[in-house]
Structures are given as structure tokens and as C-alpha cells.
């Protein structure tokens, strides 16, 4: 299982392709703004994603203020509330998580980790970012259009999404949203092709697929999935745009609105749900798989131990990726589709628990008797495992049709997906930023601020989302602007809601501390050196930190071993970099 | 640009045929697809993604057609023409299909002459392919204007289910856009071939990378794909 070969006397394959021609920037503009260097593009992607993510964070505050203290804030009327939840969801899922994992970490880490000078098509990579920025701007612009952004809920279900009862339905909101998604998909495709081809065709000598760090495996598989899943969203957006602008009836049945028979007729709203969730379910794993990969590397590095069951981890990623394309209709148990479909999709959904459980066991077994350093990346990695197990377990409830039907459209669902694809991947993003910030900037993030950030975020997230499961179980519905007096739930839920809201404000504030840390440490952080975590993967072995244009100086690295040679018995150090031919002094030499 | 490290033992390792070779390629370093350049790999993966786009369009259209309660217009009659007093069902579509399939033939020949570095013939055949493509788009424009004149709109048509017009304009429009982009690419690449860019290794305007004759083949991959998609549209939209 352990893929280690000593380089000496070993047949090392000759280079198959000549070294690439890199674009060399001549001015400040081409170096830092219209840059074709994947590392700069990664920072541009990351900054933009975090910036729009802060908008979504502020929206979540407004949502919680309304839910915790209904009627107190006149600003948040029912229309605005729906606009806020819609934009919060869409921004977080697509414009923050997808863009940050694939466009941000993918761009920075793939070329460095596979030992390439850059992505294979730097120009298309640059275009990818600028088109993504355009998509973000179109989305943000919808706040300033007449009628405001769409309030259709992030799933944008027709027919309500394009009707006058929904904010933005007959105004600009839905048009801007659909256009922004179409632009995003075009831009993402350019980047995604880059990531896939770089991993498949641009690796260093000696870097086999089974020596790739799991981070690359996660991002690679997620990108392949995105390239196959986004087309469904693209088609759904185009069709709904036509329904809204041209008056076609792809998704629109015959409808009477405000006592008036609309021109539409004969369309199928369920068709949209199928198209949307054919994208939407893989999307969950497009966000989760990079997180799985990154967290594996964080745990292995900070526990100074090789990842347990590397090959199983790789195959689990691939199998999860494949299975996630045949589970989409478990989001549609209450849509009125054929019950036999529910049976099929419940089965496939529960089968996904198997490879996922393999991954969780392997993370725990990697920790077992490891030399665990409770660094900030490790803390966030541990928080991820706990949170992911929690969210995964409630997924078993929602995956079963009979249990899902009473729970659907309650706060239980909100709690479930926030745990599993909100909090859990965000924990990994934080861990990854604390882990790779020293490589990106050359300085460590401040530890004290990081500890405060971690504990408030971790405990706070549980204070927010644990009670929400309970609210859902007793029947509090989601997407209600104000519950008012309901006979089926006790009035005491108001206090719980207020508590959740206060916690949400606090956790949000902790993120501002994190952003301050990012900026403060740029100048005042401790000097990191080239390899502060004593990690094995190639990005820590660059001649310069931060890595220069072209990454590797004159000589491309040659890879001799897998990414997880930690605490190898007999080796002088407790890690052996992937590009080191021999373990260093062997044990018998050390003894003599 | 590092000098290749000499390792004769590795260089003489023969490539295995069949499944063992496939496994060896996937288990190897550097490249998974050994004889495939970056550009070609990118085009193949893009086409896979684009297949899903057209697949979704066609499946959505089929779902609409099968679930509609109103009768679906008969495509043979809708797309029939009166030529010289004779009523000919689907005649224009047949000619369009013939033109597009022929363009795939000229494209394949262009690829062949490209690898033989026959600049003139390559460029001429690419121009011919582009001409066929433009003719296809032109006939499509004629077809659209004829249907529009007969009262077909995206939201309604005189003969039955409204989704007929919606699907027709959406799917053929999206395919026609693909053909149009293909024609533009063909013209750009043909110009480069004609000028001898790939002989002189002139760097590209945007990418500043050296061009190679392989780009003719990559353009060809795209062109054949667009052609293949049309076959499915022809079968599922017009013949059904």
C-alpha cells in the first residue's frame, strides 16, 4: 500500500514533454491584475469569493434578526426576507464555496502539488476569473435593480420564481440571477477544463495518480463532477429565462394569477426540479470532496502520521463522485413523483453512506496514536470531522422517504444542510487558509486571534444549528417570515430562536476578526520560512516562498514517493518530502 | 528548460497493448493519455461537458413532448417545402444534413493535409468546410424565417403544443450558435495556416504560445462533434 521507492538504481521515467512556454508579464497590469499566473488568479478568486461571501454573511444576520426578534425590524418585511434567504443561499453555495474551493484552492494548489509550472492554459484560466467576477457583479447588481433581487428561494422553483407574487419574479431579480448563473457556468468551464487537464496531463516526473495528495484528488474529482453537473443547471437557467422573457412554457403549467389566466400552459415544473437537482446534488459533493481531500492532508500533516488507507480514500472519493449523480431525486420526495422513484433514490442515497463512512473511519484511524499537534489547521480539521458526522447522521433521516416526508420543509432540513455543507466545508476552508497562508504570503497567521476565531466559530456553530434540529422536529417550518401564533408549537420556541440569533451575530463577528487577522498578518505575522509545518507535499518544497512565477526555478521537481511519508522509522526527520530520493541517513548509518 | 536526465533503461520499456497498456498508462506519471497533447485533451473533456448540455436540452424537449396534453405538430409536414409544384417533406432538413455531413468530410481531409504540412490544401479545405457551415446556418435562417412567417413563435404555433416552437427555436438556435462559432474558428485557423504561422512557430496573439498544426485537428474534433449533435437533433426532433 505504501508507495515508496528509493530513487537510486530505480528506473525513473524520462520526461515526456518539453518544459512549457510561460507567459512572462511585462508590466504591473499583466503581473498583478490581468495575470496569467495560477497563484495570482487563485488569490483573485479567493478575495472575490470572500468579499461576496461577506455579503451573504450580512444577509444571514438580517435573516436571524427577523427570526429571533420578529416584528422588531421594520426594514425586514416579508419580501425582503425572502430576497435575503435566496441571495444568502445562492451566494454561499455557488459564489463562495464552489468558487473558493475550485477557483481558489484549485488554482493555487493543483500546479504546485502536481509539480507543474502553471495550469496548462493560463490564458483561459485568467478569462475564467474575469468571467466569474462578471457573474458576481451581475448578481450584486440585482440588489440595485427595480424590485430588488429574486426572492424565489435558492432552488428557484418555477412557476413561483417567475410570477408576480415572488419578489423579483416579474421584475429584474430573476433575470439577473439566471444570467449571473449562466455567466458563472461559462467562466467555470474555462477554469474547470484547466484543472482537469493539468491533473491528467501536466504532472511532474514520478508523480503518478496514486501519489497525488488527496487534496488534488478531491479537487480533481469535484471539477470533473462540476463539468458534468453544471450543464443541467445551464439548461434549466436558459429554459427558465425563456419562460420569463419570451413567454415560453417549458416549466409553466396553465396558471391563474390574480384572477387572470396567464398565457402559459402545458409546461412541467417537475422537469425543472429534475434538472436543478441533477446539478444540485452533485453540487453538494463538488463542495464536499475538496473538503474531504484537504482535511485528509491537514490531519496527516498535523498528526505526523501517514493517512490511513490512502487507496481506499482515493476510491471512496471517486465512488462518492459517481454515486452522487444518481441520487438527485431524494430532494424531491414531496414533489409528487412516482413513489417507486423514491424507493430507488432512497437506496442509492443510503449506499453513499458506505464510502463516506470509510473516509470518516480512515480519518479517525489516522489520528489514532498519531503525534497530534493541536495547531489551528488541526483544530479546524477535527471540528470538520465532528460536524460532518453530525450532519451525515441527520442525512440518514432525510434520505429515507417515510422519515423525510414529515421533516421536509422544516428547520430540521435547514439544520442538516447547514451542518453538512455549510459549517463542515467552511471549517475546512478556515483550516486550509491557516495551513497554506504561510506558503501564500511567507508569514504565519496570528495564533491568538486564530484561537479566538476557532473556539467562537466552532462552539457558536453548534449553538446555532443544534437547537435548530429540535425546532424542526417539533414542526417549525422553514422559509416562514414570521410564525405568528401557531397552535402546533409552544410559544417558548421564540426564546430559542432569540438565542440562536444572538449566537449567529456572535459567530459572524468572529469572522470579522478572522478577516482582520488575514490583513494584519500580512505585515506583522511571524516569518514562516519555506516549510513551517514540516510537510511532505511538493508545494512546501519550492525554492522560494511565496513561490515565484513558474514555481520551481530552473529544474522541475522529480517525485520519488507518495505524499504521506511522516514518521518513517529510521528516517532522520519525521517527514520525507515527495521529491527526496532517499530517506536521508538510514537507521544503520545512524547507529554506527 | 531542464535537460532530460538520461535513463536508457526507462526509455526502452515498451508500451503494452490492450487492457494492460491502459492500466499502465493510468498508473504512470506525467501523462495519463500518453499520445494526447494538452489542447486535444481539453477539447475532448469540453466536448464531454457539452454533450451533457445538449443531452439535457434533448431530454427536456422529449419530456415536454411526451407530457403535453395537446397534439404535437407533425414535423414532416411543418418542415415540408413546395418545390416546382411537388410537395417534399423534410427536403430542406435533408439538404442541411447533407451539407453538414459533407463538411465533416472536408474537415477530415483538411486535418490530413495539415499533418502533411500542405498549407494551401489545408487552408482551402478549411475554407470549404467553413463555407459549408455558413451554408448550413444560412439555410437554418431561411427555415426560421419561413416558420416565423407561418406564425410559429416561441410561445405559440398554429398547429398544436406551444412547446414545439419553444423547443425548436431553443435547440436549433443553440446548435446553430455552435456551428457559427465553429465557422469563426475555422476562418481564424485557416488564416493562420495560410500565413504559415505553424511553420514559423509564430506565437499566438492572446496566449503567446507557439501554434502547431495540431490545432487543425482540434478544430476538427469540435466540428465533428457539432455534426454528430445535429444527427441526434435530426433524429429526435425532425424524424420522431
Automatic annotation (TrEMBL), chain A:
GO terms for molecular function: cytochrome-c oxidase activity; heme binding; metal ion binding; oxidoreductase activity. SUPFAM superfamilies: Cytochrome c oxidase subunit I-like (SSF81442). It is found in: Cell membrane; Membrane. Its EC number is 7.1.1.9. Keywords: Cell membrane, Copper, Electron transport, Heme, Iron, Membrane, Metal-binding, Oxidoreductase, Respiratory chain, Translocase, Transmembrane, Transmembrane helix, Transport. One of its GO terms (biological process) is oxidative phosphorylation. It holds the Pfam family COX1. One of its GO terms (cellular component) is plasma membrane. It catalyses: 4 Fe(II)-[cytochrome c] + O2 + 8 H(+)(in) = 4 Fe(III)-[cytochrome c] + 2 H2O + 4 H(+)(out). PANTHER family: CYTOCHROME C OXIDASE SUBUNIT 1. Belongs to the heme-copper respiratory oxidase family. This is Cytochrome c oxidase subunit 1. It comes from Sinorhizobium medicae (strain WSM419). The lineage of its organism: Bacteria, Pseudomonadati, Pseudomonadota, Alphaproteobacteria, Hyphomicrobiales.
TrEMBL record, chain B:
Signal peptide: none annotated. GO terms for molecular function: cytochrome-c oxidase activity. CDD domains: Heme_Cu_Oxidase_III_1. It is a multi-pass membrane protein. The chain crosses the membrane at residues 41-64, 90-111, 123-142, 162-189, 220-239. Residues 43-240 form the Heme-copper oxidase subunit III family profile domain. One of its GO terms (biological process) is aerobic electron transport chain. Keywords: Cell membrane, Membrane, Transmembrane, Transmembrane helix. It is found in: Cell membrane. InterPro entries: Cyt_c/ubiquinol_Oxase_su3, Cyt_c_oxidase-like_su3, Cyt_c_oxidase_su3-like_sf, Cyt_c_oxidase_su3_a-hlx. Cytochrome bo(3) ubiquinol terminal oxidase is the component of the aerobic respiratory chain of E.coli that predominates when cells are grown at high aeration. Has proton pump activity across the membrane in addition to electron transfer, pumping 2 protons/electron. This is Cytochrome bo(3) ubiquinol oxidase subunit 3.
Amino acid at each position: 500500500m505504501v508507495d515508496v521507492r528509493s530513487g537510486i538504481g530505480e528506473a525513473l521515467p524520462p520526461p515526456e514533454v518539453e518544459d512549457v512556454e510561460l507567459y512572462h508579464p511585462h508590466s504591473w497590469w499583466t503581473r498583478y491584475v490581468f495575470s496569467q499566473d495560477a497563484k495570482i488568479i487563485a488569490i483573485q478568486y479567493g478575495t472575490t469569493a470572500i468579499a461576496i461571501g461577506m455579503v451573504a454573511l450580512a444577509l444571514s444576520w438580517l435573516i436571524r434578526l427577523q427570526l429571533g426578534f420578529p416584528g422588531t425590524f421594520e426594514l425586514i418585511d416579508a419580501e425582503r426576507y425572502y430576497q435575503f434567504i435566496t441571495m444568502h443561499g445562492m451566494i454561499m453555495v455557488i459564489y463562495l464555496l464552489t468558487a473558493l474551493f475550485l477557483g481558489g484552492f484549485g488554482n493555487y494548489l493543483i500546479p504546485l502539488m502536481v509539480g507543474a509550472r502553471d495550469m496548462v492554459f493560463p490564458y483561459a484560466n485568467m478569462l475564467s476569473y474575469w468571467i466569474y467576477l462578471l457573474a458576481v457583479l451581475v448578481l450584486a447588481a440585482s440588489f440595485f435593480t427595480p424590485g430588488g433581487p429574486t426572492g424565489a428561494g435558492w432552488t428557484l422553483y418555477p412557476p413561483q420564481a417567475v410570477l408576480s407574487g415572488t419578489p423579483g419574479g416579474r421584475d429584474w431579480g430573476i433575470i439577473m440571477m439566471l444570467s449571473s448563473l449562466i455567466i458563472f457556468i461559462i467562466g467555470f468551464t474555462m477554469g474547470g477544463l484547466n484543472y482537469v487537464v493539468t491533473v491528467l496531463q501536466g504532472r511532474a516526473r514520478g508523480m503518478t495518480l496514486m501519489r497525488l495528495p488527496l487534496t488534488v484528488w478531491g479537487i480533481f474529482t469535484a471539477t470533473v463532477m462540476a463539468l458534468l453537473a453544471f450543464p443541467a443547471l445551464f439548461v434549466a437557467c436558459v429554459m427558465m429565462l425563456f419562460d420569463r422573457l419570451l413567454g415560453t412554457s417549458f416549466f409553466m403549467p396553465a396558471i391563474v394569477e390574480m384572477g387572470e389566466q396567464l398565457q402559459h400552459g402545458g409546461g412541467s415544473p417537475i422537469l425543472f426540479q429534475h434538472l436543478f437537482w441533477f446539478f444540485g446534488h452533485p453540487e453538494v459533493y463538488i463542495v464536499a470532496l475538496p473538503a474531504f481531500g484537504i482535511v485528509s492532508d491537514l490531519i496527516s500533516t498535523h498528526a505526523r502520521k501517514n493517512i490511513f488507507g490512502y487507496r481506499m480514500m482515493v476510491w471512496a472519493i471517486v465512488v462518492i463522485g459517481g454515486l452522487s449523480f444518481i441520487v438527485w431525486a431524494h430532494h424531491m420526495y414531496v414533489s409528487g413523483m412516482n413513489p417507486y422513484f423514491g424507493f430507488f433514490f432512497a437506496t442509492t442515497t443510503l449506499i453513499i453512506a458506505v464510502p463516506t463512512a470509510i473516509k470518516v473511519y480512515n480519518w479517525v484511524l489516522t489520528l489514532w496514536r498519531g503525534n497530534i499537534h493541536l495547531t489551528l489547521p488541526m483544530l479546524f480539521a477535527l471540528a470538520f470531522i465532528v460536524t460532518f458526522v453530525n450532519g451525515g447522521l441527520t442525512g440518514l433521516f432525510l434520505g429515507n422517504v417515510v422519515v423525510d416526508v414529515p421533516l421536509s420543509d422544516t428547520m430540521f432540513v435547514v439544520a442538516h444542510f447547514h451542518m453538512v455543507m455549510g459549517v463542515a466545508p467552511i471549517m475546512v476552508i478556515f483550516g486550509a487558509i491557516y495551513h497554506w497562508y504561510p506558503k501564500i504570503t511567507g508569514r504565519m497567521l496570528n495564533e491568538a486571534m486564530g484561537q479566538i476565531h476557532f473556539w467562537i466559530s466552532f462552539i457558536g456553530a453548534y449553538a446555532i444549528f443544534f437547537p435548530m434540529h429540535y425546532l424542526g422536529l417539533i414542526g417549525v417550518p422553514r422559509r416562514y417570515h414570521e410564525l405568528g401564533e401557531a397552535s402546533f408549537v409552544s410559544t417558548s420556541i421564540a426564546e430559542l430562536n432569540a438565542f440562536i440569533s444572538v449566537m449567529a451575530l456572535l459567530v459572524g463577528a468572529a469572522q470579522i476578526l478572522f478577516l482582520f487577522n488575514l490583513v494584519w498578518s500580512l505585515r506583522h505575522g511571524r516569518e514562516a520560512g519555506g516549510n513551517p509545518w514540516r510537510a511532505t507535499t511538493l508545494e512546501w518544497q519550492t525554492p522560494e516562498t511565496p513561490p515565484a512565477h513558474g514555481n520551481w526555478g530552473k529544474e522541475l521537481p522529480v517525485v520519488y514517493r507518495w505524499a504521506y511519508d511522516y514518521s518513517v522509522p529510521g528516517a532522520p526527520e519525521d517527514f520525507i518530502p515527495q521529491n527526496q530520493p532517499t530517506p536521508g541517513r538510514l537507521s544503520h548509518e545512524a547507529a554506527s | 528548460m531542464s535537460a532530460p536526465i538520461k535513463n536508457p533503461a526507462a526509455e526502452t520499456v515498451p508500451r503494452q497493448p490492450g487492457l494492460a497498456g491502459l492500466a499502465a498508462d493510468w498508473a504512470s506519471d506525467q501523462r495519463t493519455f500518453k499520445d494526447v497533447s494538452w489542447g486535444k485533451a481539453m477539447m475532448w473533456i469540453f466536448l464531454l461537458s457539452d454533450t451533457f448540455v445538449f443531452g439535457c436540452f434533448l431530454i427536456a424537449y422529449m419530456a415536454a413532448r411526451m407530457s403535453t396534453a395537446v397534439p404535437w405538430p407533425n414535423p414532416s409536414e411543418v418542415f415540408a417545402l413546395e418545390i416546382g409544384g411537388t410537395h417534399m417533406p423534410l427536403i430542406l432538413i435533408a439538404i442541411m444534413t447533407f451539407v453538414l455531413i459533407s463538411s465533416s468530410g472536408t474537415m477530415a481531409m483538411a486535418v490530413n493535409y495539415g499533418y502533411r504540412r500542405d498549407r494551401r490544401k489545408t487552408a482551402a479545405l478549411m475554407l470549404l468546410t467553413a463555407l459549408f457551415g455558413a451554408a448550413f446556418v444560412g439555410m437554418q435562417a431561411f427555415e426560421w424565417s419561413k416558420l416565423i412567417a407561418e406564425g410559429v413563435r416561441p410561445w405559440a404555433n398554429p398547429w398544436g403544443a406551444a412547446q414545439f416552437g419553444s423547443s425548436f427555436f431553443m435547440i436549433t438556435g443553440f446548435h446553430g450558435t455552435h456551428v457559427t462559432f465553429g465557422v469563426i474558428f475555422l476562418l481564424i485557423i485557416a488564416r493562420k495556416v495560410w500565413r504559415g504561422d505553424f511553420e514559423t512557430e509564430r506565437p499566438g496573439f492572446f496566449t503567446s504560445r507557439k501554434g502547431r498544426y495540431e490545432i487543425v485537428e482540434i478544430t476538427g474534433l469540435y466540428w465533428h462533434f457539432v455534426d454528430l449533435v445535429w444527427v441526434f437533433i435530426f433524429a429526435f426532433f425532425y424524424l420522431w
